[in-house]
Amino acid sequence: MAPASYVILFLFLLTTGALYVFALNAANNRAMPVSLIEIFFQFVMFFGFVLVFPLLTMRLLAEEFKMGTIEPLMTAPVSDWAMVLSKYVAALVFYIFLWAPTALYFTITRWVSNVTIAESSGVYWTAYGLVFMMGMAYLAVGLLTSALTSSQVLAAIGSFSLVSILFYFGLLAGITSPQLTFFRDLLSYVSAAEHMNDSLRGILHLRAVVYYLSVALFALALTHRAVQYRRWRL
Amino acid sequence: MIKVENLTKKYAGVIAVDRVSFEVSSGEVVGFLGPNGAGKTSTMRILAGFMPATSGKVTIAGHDVFTESFQARRRVGYMPENVPLYSDMRVFEYLRYRAKLKGVPRRALDERLADVFEQCGLDTVRNRMIGTLSKGYRQRVGIADALVHAPDILIFDEPTIGLDPAQIRQMRELIRGLGKRHTILLSTHILPEVEATCRRVLILSKGRIAAAGTVDTLVGGFRAAGGLFTEIAGADLQTVEKALREIQAVRDVETREMDGGWGGYTMRVREGEDAREAVFELVKSRGWKLRELSSRGISLEDVFLDLTES
Questions:
Q1: Between A3, A78, A234, which is nearest B101 by CB?
Q2: Hey, are the CB atoms on A76 and B73 less than 8 Å from each other?
Q3: Domain range enclosing B256
Q4: Which of B72, B53, B211, B89 lies closest to B155, judged by CA?
Q5: Which CATH number is B206's domain given?
Q6: Which residue from A75, B48, B124, B295 has the fewest beta carbons nearer than 10 Å?
Q7: CA–CA gap between residue A176 and residue A41 (Å, rounded)
């Protein structure tokens, strides 16, 4: 693991840890029928969640192109697909590694108290399942922006913008005129907020899974094209 | 081993490599010589499978580098110019990763790594971060990387660039040692380099092959058109230079001022001719003084300048 990954891991645990404390307080103080897991994930989603993706992906290819290390990499007997997919899987594994400790927060809370964390254990699966699906899609988008430039800064700005658009796009459903039923429905189908609300009630729609998988596959295909394009025009 | 036919590479309209053809047979050490921007790096990158050619055909050990890229890449150990490496990896870690990436089987891994560490003299820096290595060691890590999957063909782009004289000598010895077991194509713009390590030379200029042959034949072909050096006094430098240029066999004169009114003149002489008598006659008829007149052997440097400047 590169030194920078430890920093990202540290910051992620610090942030989610703090948010978890806030969520605990909120769950204690408010007489609301909202579970701890719901409060925590709502907090995380709207406090810096989209920042994780540029941080995890900006280096992946941009740095290789900038430092020239792409040259030994691309002259090894490895296909461009294998290279793109290994980068992607590496980012995804690290993403899981980031999130895994947060599950411990809930375990510890249940161990020391009897706060209602979730209505049923299925909510854990749908909530973490959705976080994983979002990771698949947004990391692929981040990898794509990293393939398009040799500058890490540009890659980070690019992926931050694209992921933000994808993530907040669905909120437009709230301000779309009710007459435009088709667009409203379309926007709510791709709305990250809506997916999150559903998953925290234990629902993971197939359409959400298909949506995130499609975004991931499309972004990966484009990444492969971008890498090949750069090989040709070098 | 390496066969290049009519290789052409264009970048956005600029022709970097222009219909280049050559062959390197098994066990040869060939030097690729040319000024910066002559197309050496482009050609080598195409041979290594880094980028495709615009047109033409390259086969490596019988495999086309474009259609059978993996087979070709497996036979080639390539060290790019300036040796790009991951600076936050340790030497051993990096080479083990490269060996796995290039498909060295697990059971052969330790042996291969031990071999290249010894061959390249890397044992003392085994656990150092690559970012903290000196230029000479970085270069050796690059060579070790090229060697790690035991390829038959080695392609080195500027292996001695940026090294100090002691490191250059070590690198030369390393390459000469490798030449006993591998086919090597190396590029350089430093001429003594080629004379020291290579048996055959390809001179590249403006994307085309300007000359090819063994070091001896290249120099030999130009020897007839050798150089002449003379020291003359008795008139100002310009007058003497002008008079020397008028001699029919003289092609070019370079003048250097010396103490006591003397001038040193280095002349290039046309092929198959001798200007010594004419120079003597000239000095005698003008009543100048002459204290040296000698013919000079031509070096690869002269050949190179001659081919790439015109």
A1: A78
A2: yes
A3: 224-309
A4: B72
A5: 3.40.50.300
A6: B124
A7: 26
Lowest average pLDDT, out of A91-105, A217-231, B31-45, goes to B31-45
Pinpoint the alpha helices (H) of chain B. 40-47, 69-75, 91-101, 106-119, 135-147, 165-178, 191-197, 215-223, 237-246, 276-286, 300-309
- What is the domain extent for residue A160? 3-233
Q: Do residue A74 and residue B86 have CB atoms under 8 angstroms apart?
A: no
What average pLDDT score do residues A194-205 get?
86
According to DSSP, the β-strands at B227-233 and B263-269 are antiparallel
B60 backbone dihedrals φ, ψ, rounded to 5°: -120, 120
Residues contacting A14, CB < 8 A, separation 6+: none
Q: Do A72 and B82 touch (CB under 8 A)?
A: no
User: Which residue bears the tokens 């280095």?
Assistant: B266
**CA–CA separation, B222 vs B218, rounded Å?**
7
Residues B89 and B237 grouped into a single domain: no
Residues 13-72 of A with CB under 8 A from B: 67-72
Of how many residues is chain A composed? 234
User: Would you say residue B304 has pLDDT above 80?
Assistant: no
> Percentage of residues in chain B with pLDDT exceeding 90?
46
Encode burial over B145-155: b for 16+ CB neighbours within 10 A, e otherwise.
bbbbbbbbbbb
Residue type, A45: M
Question: Is this prediction's ipTM beyond 0.95?
Answer: no
Pair B89, B128: CB distance under 8 Å: no
Q: How many domains does chain B have?
A: 2
- What is the tens place of the pLDDT at every residue in B186-198? 998 777 777 778 8
pLDDT, tens only, B197-229? 888 889 888 888 888 888 777 766 555 556 788
Contact B132/A at CB under 8 A: no
Q: Do B84 and A72 touch (CB under 8 A)?
A: yes
State whether B27 and B55 are in the same domain. yes
Closest CA to A222 of A158, A164, A172: A158
Q: Tens digit of pLDDT for each residue in B101-155?
A: 999 999 999 999 999 999 999 999 999 999 999 988 999 999 999 999 999 999 9
How far apart CA B88 and CA B91 sit, in angstroms, is 10
Let me know: does B34 contact B204? Beta carbons within 8 Å. Answer: yes
Diameter over CA atoms, chain B: 83
Cα gap A211→A170, rounded to integer Å: 13
- Burial class of residue B263 (count of CB atoms within 10 Å of its CB; 0-12, 13-18, 19+): buried
CA A78 to chain centre: 28
Euclidean distance between CA atoms B108 and B99, whole angstroms: 10
Smallest Cβ distance to B84: which of A68, A232, A233?
Answer: A68
The whole-chain average pLDDT of chain B stands at 88
The reply to whether B188 and B231 lie within a common domain is no
